[in-house]
What we know:
The complex is a heterodimer. Chain A is α/β, with parallel strands linked by helices. Chain A has 19 helices and 23 strands. Chain A has 3 domains: about 80-225 and about 355-420, FAD/NAD(P)-binding domain; about 235-350, FAD/NAD(P)-binding domain, CATH 3.50.50; about 430-560, Enolase-like, domain 1 (2-Layer Sandwich), CATH 3.30.390.30. In chain A, strands 1, 2, 3, 4, 5, 6, 17 and 18 form an 8-stranded mixed sheet that branches. In chain A, strands 8-15-9-10-11 form a 5-stranded parallel sheet. In chain A, strands 19-20-23-22-21 form a 5-stranded antiparallel sheet, with helices on both faces. The longest helix of chain A is centred in the N-terminal third of the chain and has 26 residues, at about 155-180. By secondary structure, chain B is α+β, with helices and mostly antiparallel strands. The termini of chain B are far apart. Among the domains of chain B are: about 105-195, CATH 2.40.50.100; about 340-535, Chloramphenicol Acetyltransferase. Chain B has 16 helices and 16 strands. At the A-B interface, strand 10, helix 12, strand 14, strand 21 and helix 18 of A face helix 2, helix 8 and helix 12 of B.
Amino acid sequence: MHSTLSFSQATTVPTTNYAFHSQSPINLRFCGLRREAFGISILTRSSSGRVRLSTRGRSKRTSASTGNNGTPPKSFDYDLIIIGAGVGGHGAALHAVEKGLKTAIIEGDVVGGTCVNRGCVPSKALLAVSGRMRELQSEHHMKALGLQVSAAGYDRQGVADHANNLASKIRSNLTNSMKALGVDILTGFGTIVGPQKVKYGKVGFTDNVVTAKDIIIATGSVPFVPKGIEVDGKTVITSDHALKLEFVPDWIAIVGSGYIGLEFSDVYTALGSEVTFIEALDQLMPGFDPEISKLAQRVLINPRKIDYHTGVFATKITPARDGKPVIVELTDAKTKEHKDTLEVDAALIATGRAPFTYGLGLENINVVTQRGFVPVDERMRVIDANGNLVPHLYCIGDANGKMMLAHAASAQGISVVEQVTGRDHVLNHLSVPAACFTHPEISMVGLTEPQAREKAEKEGFEISVAKTSFKANTKALAENEGEGLAKLIYRPDNGEILGVHIFGLHAADLIHEASNAVALGTRIQDIRFAVHAHPTLSEVLDELFKSAKVEREALEALKVG
Amino acid sequence: MQTQLGNAAFPRLLRRSLSYIPSILYSLHSLLNLFHFFRFLSNSSPQSQKHKEMASPFLSNTTISFSSSLSSSSLPRIAPSIPFSSIRSNSTPRRILTVRSKIREIFMPALSSTMTEGKIVSWVKSEGDVLSKGESVVVVESDKADMDVETFYDGILAAIVVGEGETAPVGAAIGILAETEDEIAEAKAKAASKSGASTPSAPPPAPAPGAASTPGPPKSTPAPAAPTVAEGPRKTVATPFAKKLAKQHKVDIESVVGTGPYGRITPEDIEAAAGLSPSKKNVGLAVVVETKPAAPAKAPAASAAPSSLPPPVPGSTVVPFTTMQAAVSKNMVESLSVPTFRVGYPVTTDALDALYEKVKPKGVTMTALLAKAAAMALAQHPLVNSSCKDGKSFTYNSNINIAVAVAINGGLITPVLQDADKLDLYLLSQKWKELVEKARAKQLQPQEYNSGTFTLSNLGMFGVDRFDAILPPGQGAIMAVGASKPTVVADADGFFSVKNKMLVNVTADHRIIYGADLAAFLQTFSKIVENPESLTL
């Protein structure tokens, strides 16, 4: 999934600290967004855990595992087995086939995982609708373009069908692409029974045991629901339900103002709902660069039918029943005192996502999860309870919690395949872009300004910030969408790009020039000579790089070089 | 208008960046980027020319300066290049005061056309600082940007009325400027009276334009109405947009009676309380209202609805029309301008029913049979297929297109069977099936629902025995078909028998179709239905 649903928001994915941080030198300098995932409280397993949770718990773990536990088999059924056919597993499988590995993928639910079925894919369909509705409803905008449109309306079922159809289409694309390449799709819930050995099977059927030289865990995550909140799937919902768009409430409270909450606020307000945000931290959109979130609040929150409560927990949410509305109890995040009670028509719980690793059989190989996350090193190798690497076992994606983004999972999967096929590879998480698909969009790569300042202070270098506005961009003005900002954080002494943040039209598509530059180590003094077609939105970045002031020595070095 | 040449303001603006007045930032950036633009547009194209032009006024006007004096008009001064100056002058309350003093108030400026209140980000100067004309005094955050506000007068910042982090409506005093040290004490006293009287979040402009925020009588009125929706005392529940509107229109939300679900206050309630006609728009309304400060005073109570309609029953829900429903509503009102009349006719359907049983397995529907029969009758009576477009002439249609009314989820649409007289029954049925599917999926093309020349409406399947239909604008006649029911009939010889009879009722435009015309048409229709073999030909 893209950024969207994979991302956890501060209040939620629970933890105090990365416990395994001390055990091995993990590169934890990941993008700022990650930071917000370390939050508060203790993981309470959500009531929304799907069937899979319970079935796993019940399934027997005896037959295959007892006898030869600990002695890896000599020859293997597969070179690589991936548990979980989400975007991460799919990316890994495709790359493994390309590398000539005999590959199988185990899926207990539907191919595509959260992203395709309950995450970024269907939400993009809803956001495509909300973007158009917003445009058609904006009389001012239409008038400025000289367009006349009579009252725009929508058919809820039609919108919901669009989202559902898109998910099925992408799902079948994923399935077909794996089948076509000869990846075996094994149906059932996978459990690790010993080194290089996995069993899988459906509930009520006998389990099959398969062996593989290497195993990748890619089981993803489920919506995290804090305790005290009763999800009924009708009036108190998670993103899983909201994406089905079974009804459009007049007034919905959204708990959490991270990516998921923000995107849904865009959808719901475009479809006519009023929204109340409930955010545990003192500021809305805590994961973003402060300047970007300030601007985003001016554009995405203040002028819309949205109000918010910050610095409060939703400690109790009761679904609508017996002629009563949904009741939300707010508690002050600091004093823990009751603060307010809201009466709304629906509540969406967007407090982040919890790893889905229960019942994976990790105890069979002496691995202990950290708040549900599988501990890994920077090469995605799983670390056991004693701090040692578990040979031939990797974990990618939301399940390891390094960076809960669909494309990050896929990149991690590719990195693992590179390693098992003999080429060392470490993924630079600072080069992984993230995007929030509101209207306009928000995107980013690398560090936020406060993070960069902290790092600069620690390591003793200077940083500078450059900004450009969409208001000066011809294409943006032609679209009458001049609202927006691009921000570059860099080192003036050597021209290194530390972070780029964009808020504006098609920001999610624009970020890749910056993320590629970060990934390839391109410096500002080099990239500023790259040519951009005129007039395009990409000139916003062109101007950004050109407006950065790199010190003379770096430029001299370039000339000499 | 005073102009301030504040070179210092240029980088300041830059730092704070962002968006507020397109032209300013546009020119600002054009300045920044002129160099790059010229690289792209090395020939002096109109575009680059424009950049130069836009950049120049900016240099001389740099930043928004604002301040005013008690002894003069309180109109804000805004650099001349700023396009919304006219809006500003409307939206700020004018004051005519007789006090003569050198104590001046610093007002919350309007930094954008949509700004209704501003937040003090920081005071650049502190109390007691000596200010000179053009200096930045305070940084204000509007709905769009952070801006430095300058003073137009030399003096001493005697008192800060609205502190950092607090919010004040546009036009409210946020600080007091004294001209000399002697006046500081007086200014402070003034400030004290101001800040004492106002809440920190929103000090209203002193002689506020009598908005509904006046406490007192309105507060007592809602009490009796509230218990209808809620038992006992309860707190006010207002939706996010209602709260925003209340703030914008200075409506005291406690004085409004909620009519929404669970007795909550909806945006419509606030609009009613503010004396506005309910409207979908939010932006822009503010400007309209604030130019007429008298308007809100008229309607402080929620009950003073702008229209003569009775107030909605508490707890009722208002659901706006969908596009389709709005179209139906419009057409129905339009139909009132046409003089119509109705003629009914009983039709024996035994033969038709028998035929229907025979062709049903081939996918023929009753709708197709009736449409075909009507079309064949119309072919013989082209007048009934005509329409009156201008009240002066007959328009004879060259095609017989039968529109058939279909209820779809929450709406009504009339897919059209084009050339229904020419197509055979099976093609017609096939066509009908396609149209209904498209209608359900809302994919009908305009010519597939608005090209009808005659309409058929059948409620027989619900057991309705007779009804009359409203003639859609642009057509000459519409046929309402009831259910076919076994009826005892006596023939010419006095023998009783039971026959299936169906009542059809045609509504027609009497400007072009007269009673005898319709009767003749119905007779033909009846004959076709009673001898339906021709339908299958």
